[in-house]
Request: fold
Amino acid sequence: MKSVSVGNVTLALEDRGGSRSQAEPSFSKPALLLVHGFPLDHTMWREQIEYFSVHGRVIAPDLRGFGESSNAPDDGSELAAVSMAAYADDLAALLDQLGVDRPIVFCGLSMGGYIAWQFCKKHGRRLAALVVCDTRAIADSPQAAAGRAELAKRTLTEGTEPVVAAMLPKFFGPETIAQQRPCVADTVAAMHRASPIGIASALGAMATRPDMTASLAEIRVPTLVVVGEHDVISTADEMHGIAERIADAELVVIPGAGHISPLEDPEAFNHALERFLREKAGWN
Ligand code: MLT
Reply:
């Protein structure tokens, strides 16, 4: 894995495929930036990294405080300083560091989608197309925000276990849980790789994120909206509402999947994403 310094953090990332030479056909394809959900890391995209890097450039970072990326500050004194906009700025700076100056396809899942809305707002000129998976546009309710504050407090004193217990039951469809498919254990391992400070910071950032519903109408790039049929965090109905508010959007529901649809049913997910990339982002 590569690592790149961005401001006061070091971000770890996979950067695979595509050509860096203008003479190669894949140079003209927009890079695909894969942004993971909470409290995971780039490994949730492993099936997409393998599949799509054969055809073009795929960049999959660990957000600050997750996976192998560092977190700032180290002492946890400024937890509230992180925000969805700050994560979006990290990603724009990462693209600068990698020399990616052409518009990209931003693909974010759940918290990665919360970051996508901020990326659209602050760095919209860098976008060729958008993919939002299993995410929400509304802000947290006061009750949800209070729950996150409590979980952040416990994570800072007890470590990653409370967050695993809180999140895992909401991540997969019923069959995947019943069969204990390998993606379940892999997801638990990813959650344990996150730093408690990174988790607490992200919980604070999610609890204070703004309602972006009104901004959806400002999105002008082609957009793919993907949701697992059984997603209990961002339901298919809610994501249908998101797709309706974006001018050029298409909704795909992945049958049988829950919240982490790219990992749970990579075949169906990759099929939908590949078609979208071909039709709307010049990945021919
Ligand atoms: C995620 O998958 O990123 C989280 O479930 C988002 C959230 O808790 O709101």
About this structure: The longest strand covers residues 9-16.
